[in-house]
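The passage that follows is intended for readers who have already worked through the single-chain material. We present the inputs for a multi-component assembly, then the predicted structure in tokenized form, and finally a short commentary. You are encouraged to pause after the input and sketch how you expect the pieces to fit together before reading on.
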Amino acid sequence: SSELTQDPAVSVALGQTVRITCQGDSLRSYYASWYQQKPGQAPVLVIYDKDNRPSGIPDRFSGSRSGNTASLTITGAQAEDEADYYCNSRDSSGNPYVIFGGGTKLAVL
Amino acid sequence: QVQMQESGPGLLRPSETLSLTCTVSGGSISSSTYYWAWIRQPPGKGLEWIGTIYYSDTYNNPSLKSRVTTSVDTSMNQFSLKLSSVTAADTAVYYCARLFMDYYYYYMDVWGKGTTVIVSS
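Having made your guess, compare it with the prediction:
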């Protein structure tokens, strides 16, 4: 199965813009989805398909893809955005397998 | 609003079989739109997909394939996970989730709160 690579940690100043990236061969063919996970809680879907947000997710969250890299951008990061972020996609083999990135810990300073 | 809840033993001994059930409320597990998935997260680590079930079709993580069995009970609106021959490496929080699978994208839009499973002698 294929892999998705994320930076382990990223920081952003309060109110600034941050991009969290996810790299992998599968992203040349398939779109990434993104999840936010706060300590002790289940993950929450924040972006799916190309750049869609579930109901209740602020519009400061957006997604994009270029080549083998998917990005989650938070425009105007808030203190409550401090969390772990995971990407996932379909496995590049074409099998209906789910793969996750290793996660990025976002610190809002 | 669909909600999901995992249940099952929290403590296992090595070599035993882990058995978990996910109860779906607020929606039908027989929906033709969604698949149903198990994901786990070892302490301090990232998310790992375990397997997916859609009616009688199952897809399992190749790294766990031979140890994983999933099933659906439509009468109870539940689906289940069995993981055989557990070791300490299977200690994790186990989540069930509703999975949408399109050719180009997969996403899990509803998650259970998770249940902690510890494997220890």
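Commentary: The longest strand of chain B covers residues 92-101. Chain B touches chain A at residues 37, 39, 46-49, 52, 59, 61-63, 95, 99-102, 104-109, 111-114 (CB under 8 Å). How closely did your sketch match?
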